[in-house]
Amino acid sequence: MDTGNTALADALQTQDMAAIAFGLRHGPTFAPHEGDGLWLHRDAASGRDVLLLFSEARRAPASLPPVVALSPDDLRAALGEIDVAAVILDVAGPHPMQAAPADIIAALDA
How far apart are CA 70 and CA 72, in angstroms? Predict the structure, then answer.
């Protein structure tokens, strides 16, 4: 399994949206996986589900289910199948970012 997406990690450091889109399109992202699908975090404040993505497998907190590498096509397909309020990249840092699912889909489709 790939263990990181350097382009995405670097882009998150600068919060450069064009570079983040490039990183999403050209490398794996990592998401917690449980059972037959992606594990979703339930936001306590809104009660809505949130998808957590990581630029590197090692950035996922140990308290989450194991992560799987998602190709850009796999991520795009998953976002088309799930209903989430937000996508949070590298939630545990060092440079977290929150985006609307539609923005991630647009970046992948560009």
Answer: 6
| β-sheet bridge partners, residue 66 | none
Q: Give the contacts of 80 (CB within 8 A, at least 6 positions apart).
A: 105
The mean pLDDT of the chain is 93
Half-sphere exposure of 105 (CA within 13 A, CB side): 13
Q: Which domain holds residue 11?
A: 6-109
Return the ∠ at Cα 20 (arms to 16 and 21), rounded to 5°. 120
Amino acid at 1: M
Model-wide pTM > 0.85: yes
Specify the CATH number for the domain of residue 68: 3.40.1350.90
Are the beta carbons of 97 and 62 closer than 8 angstroms?
no
Residue carrying the six token digits 């088309």: 80
Evaluate whether 27 touches 7 at the Cβ level (below 8 Å): yes
Q: How far apart are CA 69 and CA 46, in angstroms?
A: 28
What domain count does the chain have? 1
